[in-house]
Each structure stands twice: as C-alpha cells, then as structure tokens.
# Entry
Amino acid sequence: MAEGADNKENTESKADAAVKAGIKDSNSGADKMTLEEQEILPALEAVLFASGEPVAMEQLAEIFEMTVVELQQHLSDLDKSLEDKQRGIQLQQVAGGYQLVTRPRFFQLVERLTETRDKRLSAAAMETLSIIAFKQPITKQEIEHIRGVRAEKVVLKLLEQDLIKELGRKDTLGRPILYGTTDTFLKCFGLNNLTDLPELPQADMSQLSPEQLEYLEQKVPEPADKEV
# Structure
C-alpha cells in the first residue's frame, strides 16, 4: 500500500510539474508574441484603450519592441484609420504621450452616460489657474498682487484637484512656495506641453494699479533651491 501511495504521489508530482512547465511555456510564448502587419494597429488601439492614461512614446516602443520611428508611423496610421472610419474615439498627443479620447462631436452623449456632477472651475479658480500657467513658477503673494485679492483658498482648491503643484521655494525673504501646473492640467486642457498655451489676449491695462502692472510685466526668476 505504501509503495502504491508513493507511486501515486510521484505521478501527481510529475503531472503538477508538467502543468507548471506548460504554464511557463505559455507565458514565455506570450512574452515573445509576434504580430502580423495587419494586427499592429488593432494592438496599438487595445493597449492605449486599456491604459486610459497617456502612454509615452518610449514605453509604447518598448511594449511593441520596435523603434520610435517605426512606432510613429504606426501611430500616424492609427490616427488616420480612426478618422477615415469616423470612429467615436480619436488619437491625441497629450502630456507628452498618446491617448485615445472621445471625439468632441460625441462628448455631450458621453457626459450623459457618466452622470458626473458639475466639476467646472469657478471664475476665481480659472483666473488663478491662468495666472499660474502663464507666469510659473510663481508664489501665492505674486498671484495676489496680480489679482488684487487673497488667493489662499483657491490655490488650495487647485492643489486638491491636482491642477497645480509646488515646484520649490523662491530664494527671497521668507522663502515662499513656488507653484506651477501639472500633467493633469495638460490633460484637462488637451495640451501636449506648456508651449501649446495660447497667446495671452490683450487686456485693458487702464484698470490695473501700477503695482499690478509691475508684476504682470515682471519675469518671475527660476527657483534657486528646488527643495520644498
């Protein structure tokens, strides 16, 4: 009986080992997955869809085991394919990466589906965010000088929404915190980088005080100390 039990255990051990080996071989095969030419665009679409966030070109090149030049051509082909077929999504370069986003034409329908509550920024928050975007790095005190009102609450709100972040401290008396925009800001406004910001409109300067004008015209220096 003992010998039979041993044989049974040995048989089961060999079976387990075979199953594990099969799984390992299967996983290895997945790692070495090769795509046919006609499968590359659907595969790109699948990866970008699964991510939900912008994926850097370098990361995509690593995933698909191809050069950046080759990948760029496939991304262009995917963009054209989505456009030609009038798909409900489109390829967008944003925050330094690539992302599949809803085509603007159908945004209102998607908004109904999500039934999210209104999260639009207040006028004060939008004004403060605009100042930070165009004048960064900038301190709260400098924002207040430009706006003419206190900005503590609205700055905290923008920090909570991950639209701005602390960049460091200004090398001046009191070492105030310097603020700048985040990748979330870029994604929310459909920008690839800060150079995509539009030109500032011409404002009526007659209503501004000399001190406000000075801060608007002043170029804020780069932080000397990056530690927060």
Summary: The two ends are 73 Å apart (CA to CA). Residues 74 and 102 are 20 Å apart (CA to CA). The longest strand covers residues 89-94. The longest helix spans residues 2-31.
